[in-house]
Amino acid sequence: MAIEAVIFDFGGVLTSSPFEAFARFETERGLPVDIIRRTNAANHLENAWAKFERAEVDIDTFDELFATESLALGAEVRGRDVLPLLQGDLRPEMVEALKRIKAQFKTGCITNNLPANAIGSMTGRSLYIAEVMVLFDHVIESAKIGLRKPDPRIYRLMVETLKVDPNNCVYLDDLGVNLKPAREMGMTTIKVTSSAQAIAELEAATGLKLG
Question: Which UniProt keywords are listed (predicted)?
Answer without folding.
Answer: Acetylation, Hydrolase
